[in-house]
Design brief:
Layout lengths: L1 H48 L3 H14 L4 H13 L3 H13 L5 H13 L3 H9 L8 H13 L3 H12 L6 H14 L2 H14 L4 H13 L12 H17 L3 H14 L5 H12 L1
Helix pairs in contact: 2-3, 3-4, 4-5, 5-6, 5-7, 6-7, 7-8, 7-9, 9-10, 9-11, 10-11, 11-12, 12-13, 13-14
Length: 282
């Protein structure tokens, strides 16, 4: 009797132990899955920011082949293709994301961005038009402004640029784009104002400084603006002023600016030297 009881207790203990072991294994498996998910998310973030764009494309392509339904991996691939400047492929990738049942409105905005990069302005416009007006984001309105610019719909472009600026804490790039739009329209004074605002927002934005010089030169103002600039930047801006002056027929002023650019540059300014030699030879 006692032996039977002991055997029963032993069997019960074995069953409990086996049950604990299985439960323990299941918990370990779940823990490992969680860790792998975290590691994968961290690696995806690295690939989207720090990695070489083509390496990121390879990573997301490989991961997507193993997890074809994961929209985060689809987005990662599409984003990486844009970073790698493989724009035609990125359009295909973003279209796949947009068709996913878990797609968001931001994905349609990113599709429009990819379409713009391929020069498909018509499809980009249609994609943006399909997004509800209640979806008000900085990127959406920045793209709306660019599309309106391409169609020379200036009032719409101005409205979209203004809206986009109000939706970001870093408006320098948009101000620069808006200024360039004004520059192409021949509204030089307004362009100059917008470039100045862009530089105040980001003193390191050399493109805005160069565009500011172009706007001033278009008004035959060949003096450098009072903005923060390094010595090399100063030389480059003088070179821009010189070429603008020459293009407008103010050749002697252009020559003087080229000489100043050469003297200002901390190293040999080959481009300016060639320009000056060509002028003097002619």
């Amino acid at each position: 009797m006692r032996q039977s009881i002991l055997m029963g207790m032993g069997l019960a203990a074995a069953v409990v132990l086996a049950g604990c072991q299985k439960a323990g294994e299941a918990e370990v498996d779940r823990a490992l899955e969680a860790v792998n998910a975290i590691d994968g998310a961290d690696l995806s973030d690295v690939m989207l920011t720090a990695a070489d764009p083509n390496e990121a494309v390879a990573y997301f392509s490989r991961t997507l082949s193993e997890n074809p339904d994961r929209i985060d991996i689809q987005r990662g691939l599409a984003t990486s293709l844009v970073r790698a400047k493989r724009y035609d492929e990125s359009v295909t990738a973003w279209k796949r994301v947009v068709k996913h049942p878990d797609s968001r409105l931001d994905d349609q905005v990113d599709l429009a961005d990819a379409l713009i990069r391929t020069g498909d302005w018509e499809q980009a416009d249609k994609t943006l038009d399909a997004i509800p007006p209640t979806h008000e984001t900085f990127k959406r309105y920045r793209l709306e402004a660019v599309v309106a610019d391409s169609a020379k719909e200036w009032k719409k472009a101005d409205s979209f640029y203004e809206t986009a600026i109000g939706l970001t804490t870093r408006p320098a790039g948009v101000l620069n784009n808006w200024g360039y739009s004004k520059l192409t329209r021949g509204d030089f004074s307004d362009a100059e104002r917008l470039f100045g605002q862009a530089i105040r927002e980001d003193t390191g934005l050399f493109t805005a400084k160069n565009n500011l010089v172009l706007a001033r030169a278009a008004q035959r103002n060949y003096s450098l603006p009072v903005v923060p600039m390094e010595q090399t930047e100063r030389a480059q801006l003088l070179h821009t002023l010189a070429l603008s002056a020459i293009k407008q027929g103010d050749v002697e002023i252009g020559k003087a600016l080229l000489r100043e650019a050469i003297d200002t540059h901390p190293q040999h300014f080959e481009t300016a030297v060639r320009s000056l030699r060509a002028l003097e030879a002619s």
